[in-house]
Amino acid sequence: MKSEFVLAFNEVVEDRQLSREVILEALESALVSAYRRAVNASNAQLVEAKVNMDNGEVEIYAEKEVVEDVQDERTEVLLSEARKVDADAELGDMVVVETTPENFGRVAAQTARQVIQQRIREAEREIQLEYFEKQVGEIVSGIVQAVTPRYATIGLDKKAEGQMLRKDMIPRERLRVHDRIRCLIYEVKESNRGPQIYLSRAHRNFLRRLLENEVPEIYHGVVEIRSIAREPGQRAKVAVSATQQGIDPVGACVGVRGVRIQAIVRELSDEKIDVIEWSNDSAAFIAKAISPARVVGVYLSENEEEGKTATVVVPEDQLSLAIGRDGQNARLAAKLTGWRIDIKSQVEAAGDSLEKLREDATYAEMAEREAEAMEKVAIMLEKKAEGRPLPPEDYDFMSKFINRVEKRVEEKRRAEDLEEKRRREEALATVPELTFEIDILDVDLKEHILFILQEGGIETLGDLVLQMRLDPDRILALNGIGPKSFEEIQELTDALRVIPGEAPVEEVPAEAVAAEEPVAVPELAEELAEPEGAEAEEAAEVEEVPEVIAEPEEAAVVEAAAPEEPVSVTEAEEEEKEEEDDFDKLFSYDASKYGYFEAEKPRFEEDEDDELKPSKKKKRKKQRPSPDDIDQWDEW
């Protein structure tokens, strides 16, 4: 037969919905606290409690010092008693022995009650927090326990309580105590008073979860919810699409005779729900999102200043329906599609198109072609302003006119976008790729300039170079960038340039050098090949074939004589090679300098007279001999 202790222990386990280990640990901790309080033991002393689950007996073990004569029973024990527990115990050792006080069960029951309750509450809070953190984003069912002007308290599983703030309630929905409702857990916080669980029935994900519960196709992934726009208690729009062919996503959500959608409408206190088929075509998707209004045309515009804007043209009798009460329909359509929607009637749109053709010079060519149509539209607008009705044919003509003008506007914007894209690609081609891997704070500029650039959205050196190529005024407009700082940035970015399409420098053939650069006269090459005496010594000092700077008459002689006999161009090839090396150095990559190309500065050497001169030796000009000298050589 089970003891009363065991029965009470099992009852607590079932009532609190906690594990036996948690309750037993809380009980032992409470017994230790009760012992310390009963005997006034120190917190530094090791005390343990053990509970016999068969008969409910409690035993307390405490660490004591082995002594010959006990002065304090709380901390000391005789050697004979200690050796009953540990046969090797000696004087001065610390031994854990049983020290259960008399009638401790009754004392423990009274003093440990609050401790046990506190530990059980802490264990419950930990379990609640762990359980409901996994339920965030899911629908739970609860019972209304209290309703105040600020929030409602909902009783949940695990004996937890959730709060539904006034903003999370459906407007005009009345909650009564003891009503069972469903709501969404959207946030769980830990606090000293236990987990704070926040519930909502106005969240758009609440509608998403209801659709998943009511529509099996959504739950299994055959139909996908693309976006949801909702104003709780009034109207909601849901965009759905099918992941398999042959499936009607709207029909699956509505159900036979609207059974599925009506169940959700009742749950949301008669909130109207529009189910729309999602489309890749933004214009078609926006036209469906404006439903139930009929749309004549949708014209898209996308730029940095205004963002994504869609102009929707509707018949005049559909204008109020498209806008909705207090702009609700247009507002929900904008949230659903992500576009800024501007709704116009046909008459208003026709007036705007007519004004564009008349006032905008960029549409002069189109205005000439549409001159006749412009006159007709102007007459129609005058009739409408006078309050006279227009036949359906006039509205059709007006719609076609609006479509032609707006399509022309779209083509112009598309051309501008393409031009902007082309400019960006061309500028990007001149920026070294490695500069995009360098953080802007690592650039060799003043620190305050780098921080200003980073705050302006420039993250890497490549971004800075690209922005300077596209629009340097934007950098100059940053607060803190003055003319001097701008010049420093410009000098840095100008040096970082890759010439698009630049082919590697190739060696120039000797024949091309001979044909392009004027050299010594061919007729005299043989005569000067083996100079004697002082002339030989002077020729030995010449390292390179000099360029002949001839007078106009002498240049004519050179050009006339060049085709007769090829000239030795070994020295000319060496000179060309030196020029190629200098050109390669000019565009060489220095890995230690941000990964861009930088021109190498000319090097100078010190002469014997401490004068600076270029390292390349000065060329000596070989003078052409005069006719008198040639006559003398013939006599020799």
Which keywords apply here?
single chain, 636 residues, alpha+beta, N Utilization Substance Protein A, Chain:P, domain 4, OB fold (Dihydrolipoamide Acetyltransferase, E2P), 5-stranded mixed beta barrel, 4-stranded mixed sheet, 45% helix, disordered C terminus
Task: Offer a quick outline of the entry.
By secondary structure, this protein is α+β, with helices and mostly antiparallel strands. The chain contains 26 helices and 17 strands.
Break the fold down into its secondary structure elements and pairings:
Elements: H1 4-16, H2 20-39, E1 47-51, E2 58-67, E3 76-78, H3 79-85, E4 94-98, H4 104-111, H5 113-133, E5 139-147, E6 151-155, E7 161-165, E8 180-189, E9 196-200, H6 204-214, H7 216-219, E10 223-231, E11 235-242, H8 249-254, H9 259-267, E12 272-277, H10 282-289, E13 297-303, E14 307-314, H11 319-323, H12 328-337, E15 340-345, H13 346-359, H14 364-369, H15 371-385, H16 392-429, H17 447-455, H18 461-470, H19 472-476, H20 483-495, H21 510-516, H22 523-527, H23 534-541, H24 552-561, H25 570-586, E16 604-606, E17 612-614, H26 627-635
Helix pairs in contact: 2-4, 2-5, 6-9, 10-12, 13-15, 13-16, 15-16
Tally of separate helices = 26
**Can you say what the CATH homologous superfamily of one domain is?**
NusA, N-terminal domain
Indicate the CATH class of one domain.
Alpha Beta
How widely separated are the two ends?
149 Å
pLDDT below 50 for ≥5 consecutive residues: which ranges?
Answer: 503-570, 582-622, 632-636
Could you give a short account of the major beta sheet?
5 strands, mixed, barrel
Strand coverage percent: 15-25%
Shape: elongated
Structural class: alpha+beta
Radius of gyration: 47 Å
